[in-house]
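Worked example 3. Consider a protein that binds 4AD.
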Amino acid sequence: GRMWTDVGELCDEMKGETVLIRGAAQAIRPTSKKIVFLVVRQSMSTVQCILVVTKDVISPQMVRFATSLTKESIVDVEGVISVPDKLITGATQQVEIQVRKLYCINRAVPNLPISIEDASRSETEFKKAEESGEQLVRVGQDTRLNNRGIDLCTPANQAIFRVKSVGVNEFRRFLLLKKFVEIFTPKVIAGSSEGGAEVFKLEYKGKPACLAQSPQLHKQMAICGGFGRVFEVGPVFRAENSYTHRHLCEFVGLDVEMEIKEHYHEVCDIVEELFVAIFNHLNNNCSKELEVINRQYPFQPIKYLPKRLTYDEGVQMLKQEAGVEIEPMGDLNTEAEKKLGKLVSDKYNTDFFILTKFPLRIRPFYTMPCEEIISRAQRIHDPEMLTKHAEQCGIDVKTISTYIDSFRYGAPPHGGFGAGLERVVMLFCGLNNIRKCSLFPRDPQRLTP
Ligand code: 4AD
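Given these inputs, the predicted complex is written out as structure tokens:
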């Protein structure tokens, strides 16, 4: 086959070489009947391509053909790399392709729902353009999501989903190294796994069922089943009624469950090491992605030297340093969480902290008294205590009887945690909306595309 070059790899050192690339014609800018500039995009990178009428190489017909291309048509470009004094199109690659051959592989329709150029601009660019009286189109979030297939083509989106992929792979690599086994639990289950009303109900061969709100019960049963340490990456369903920047109805759950040998801090240790490994790995391997995201959505990198605080210390800090009163043994609402995050960031210079010793009554039913962290906990392995808790939490114990029974057959002390992959990416990339981190988001108002 022919030799293909990635647009992102085009660089000065290739000056004079002939290359062949495939990409989308993001912009087509004729400057006369003899010259046309194309901006060709492949994933996160764009390159300026120029066709100039020259005897025996580029005919006027070829320039006309290039000029008549529609935006986003897929093209193959063969040409020679040169280094222009100045790029006129603002492409990411600092070199230019002097086109020799141009093929249109698939033509896009002339009126696209979104222009990728418009959809790739940062707020700063819009403001600058406005000041200079230029008319630019802002692409709103609903328009983007309604046309997600094409919206995904923006370099920032390309970068976000690469970060997500690299991050989840590091999650796997780290846990496998620590002797965890990857498991796959059912997503159609008989009863709710987290309690509460936020479940999608369905009918399963005439019986009531629901979509799993987490792999919680089954990952614990896997521990009872003798696996020692397990993890899962899989879809999680929440029939959330909250239409917010950080809630989805379907997201990717990162779940971990493990035997505890001596102390529940073993779980905290894994949480800290795991997330530090993921963040380090992203910083070391996704610098291009992070730069691309930063160009459209500027952000400050997170500081992730782990810090542990008890719930009481957190409540004290909120009271003394922000004047926020938390009712005795009460949960921290989003606002209080955010305030505490700011206080911890200022005082300990980190955005990564774990709150230990969370009061039991604000945690789900399977949580062991006293040993508690947000989305992380030691579990109850005593079946009678578990039954009592489930009842107190208003759970129909019949629907989870096999779960409770599994603790009668010899169950080691264990604990675990769960995080939403989209939340992790949103936080790490400083994005303002979780929908940006979901390929095809599902929220209370969106079931398509
Ligand atoms: O806090 P949650 O509900 O905890 C559990 O599911 C437990 N079974 C975990 C455990 O092992 N103790 O959800 C876990 C994480 C949250 O911390 C958050 O990152 C994410 O899942 N999450 C959501 N992400 C997006 N949209 C939603 N609606 C989310 N709800 C929770």
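Take a moment to read the result before moving on. Residues 155-177 form the longest helix (23 residues). Residues 194, 214, 216, 238, 240, 247-248, 251, 255, 375-377, 416-420, 422-423, 434 surround 4AD (CB under 6 Å).
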